[in-house]
Design a protein that fits this description.
Layout (H helix, E strand, L loop, with lengths): L6 H21 L3 E4 L4 E5 L13 E3 L3 H9 L3 E5 L5 H18 L8 E9 L3 H22 L5 E2 L2 E2 L8 H7 L1 E3 L1 H14 L3 E5 L6 H19 L5 E2 L1
Parallel strand pairs: 3-4, 4-5, 5-8, 5-9, 9-10
Antiparallel strand pairs: 1-2, 6-7
Helix pairs in contact: 2-3, 6-7
Length: 230
């Protein structure tokens, strides 16, 4: 029999069933299962969880996947990579729709958003670091959505449709006041937690200094709101 569906559809289908099997094993002392991808007689897992239910977080970028995860009671982690504010809001709204569909328990779910971030000392350093990030994303695109070209043992930097200025607008590579303004959009839109990814080719010294500045100036500011910055 020829199997229908694209590889992505098949992967999602198996992921959903795998997640169902995992939840059953964590919840019940003994589990038997018969599905499309799994078929087994009663078995158990050891050591058993101390408490139930165990909170789970699903990583998702597709809007339907975000909504579906929330509607089934999972916390969600997402990212917009180098995308726009509109893309961020569309993913937040998909999460909220899933929470509404779940009902009262949806009010307890959390949305985490991973973002590239660097707290620059001034505008000149922000421009310098944005150029580094732009070169990073040329290689990232090659591996994430592109052909995966490698030359002399290195990932090739491919041309991007997004301009340097557009990238600068979308990333959190900026001085303090601008970073607070940009992160405020996350707090106001309903994001519960922002996970900062800060390595894009700068020196270790610069990276550590930026982390210190974030810890001293950004995190304390947002402790007054409902958003966590990590």
């Amino acid at each position: 029999m020829k199997r229908l569906g694209t590889p992505i559809e098949q992967s999602k289908e198996k992921f959903v069933e795998s997640l169902e099997v995992l939840q059953l094993l964590l919840k019940n002392k003994e589990v038997s299962y018969k599905g499309k991808h799994y078929d087994f007689e009663p078995l158990t897992i050891m050591p058993r969880p101390i408490s139930n239910p165990i909170p789970m977080m699903v990583a998702a970028m597709n809007l339907e996947s975000i909504k579906d995860a929330a509607s089934r009671g999972f916390h969600v982690q997402s990212t917009v990579l180098s995308g726009t504010k509109d893309l961020l809001l569309s993913r937040v709204n998909a999460f909220k729709e899933g929470c509404i569909q779940l009902g009262e328990k949806g009010k307890l779910l959390k949305l985490s958003m991973q973002r590239m971030a660097y707290l620059a000392k001034d505008e000149n350093e922000a421009r310098e670091k944005t150029k580094l990030a732009y070169e990073y994303y040329k290689r990232f695109d090659n591996m994430f959505t592109g052909p995966g070209k490698v030359k002399d043992g290195n990932i090739e930097a491919l041309p991007r449709k997004q301009t340097l200025e557009e990238l600068k607008e979308n990333l959190l590579i900026c001085p303090l006041n601008e970073m607070i303004d940009k992160l405020s959009v996350y707090a106001e839109s309903g994001v519960d937690e922002v996970i900062l990814s800060s390595s894009f080719g700068q020196s270790q010294e610069d990276l550590i200094e930026s982390m210190y500045r974030i810890g001293e100036n950004v995190i304390p500011y947002f402790k007054k709101s409902n958003i966590q910055v990590a």
